[in-house]
């Protein structure tokens, strides 16, 4: 057992003391005791608590790996997220105005991935434990939308047939859409014939009983009462199974508002890594849009939704791998602006082309400040100024941070 003084909260959300020693569930300024294993510790006791320590709103907090920072008052927690963005940008020697973090409200997350395990007491449905593969059975979740929380008993029933093979470890990817819950199940053992006919029927019956919109098995439709639809700006989009969707509608809107404010008056905009058109449809209210993403189902859904919003400017969408076949600088020269929103790995190859082009306005949206800082560095070297950054707290009480940065030259 060691007594430690916590100096800061590190990038993974753990308290950090001299050494370094990392102790989860602690806060800057606290004196604590911890049981240490190497550099990692488990909190035993808080001897002197921070004035910013608050009672966590969820009874699962501390065990559940979904949240790391519920014990921190919201203002210092949001400042810490902003500071994480500043630190990552500083590593690339980028100094920029960073706005206060946009805060997603509790109970607003429309997407969760729930793991299911069998056992003597029946199906357990929940999230992974902190630093373990064990499962915490979830009965409440202050982050998820109440309609998802209310559906937990039905989702546990739905998981049952997917556990028929002892090697299956199903994950239910649950999305709350405008027409009800859309559930894509992965982690089901495919050998020995895959899911049996009986299990498929049982899953479909349960889906009907609980009025789920659709159930798919790694993208294959097992049951569909209604096409899952999402409203993205002015458009209504048929969501492909297992498709990417921003986790919190309010955060999505904040990102879109910030991006669009920078692009006023742009005649043509390229929306790269467009997904199903989260930003494309909003952009197309004022600008002609070229959208590209390597997911063919996402591009098909985007195209199918164009007619749902009258009065939009032209939208052209293309399934394209932007790592292997980035949109070339010569193609981008015909655009007035570019929006890019890549996965965690960033958009190195595509950014090189943006940098070489004549485009003068760019918006970068990212779920990884480290790769964003790298890509931003390339644009700055090519004469862009990173004007402002908006940190977005889309994954409340987790260490994840998203951001939008606007560039001009
Ligand atoms: C963070 S999501 C953003 C999607 C969309 N902008 C939105 O907000 O809903 C990243 C997108 O990048 C796409 N993607 C991943 N790797 C890609 C690649 N190599 N080329 C093109 N698109 C890719 C994914 O299909 C996904 O739609």
UniProtKB/TrEMBL annotation:
GO terms for molecular function: 4 iron, 4 sulfur cluster binding; rRNA (uridine-C5-)-methyltransferase activity. S-adenosyl-L-methionine binds at residues 246, 273, 293, 341. It comes from the Bacteria. GO terms for biological process: rRNA base methylation. InterPro entries: MeTrfase_TrmA_AS, NA-bd_OB-fold, SAM-dependent_MTases_sf, U5_MeTrfase_fam. Keywords: 4Fe-4S, Iron, Iron-sulfur, Metal-binding, Methyltransferase, S-adenosyl-L-methionine, Transferase. The active site is at 367 (nucleophile), 367. Pfam families: tRNA_U5-meth_tr. Belongs to the class I-like SAM-binding methyltransferase superfamily. RNA M5U methyltransferase family. This is RNA methyltransferase.
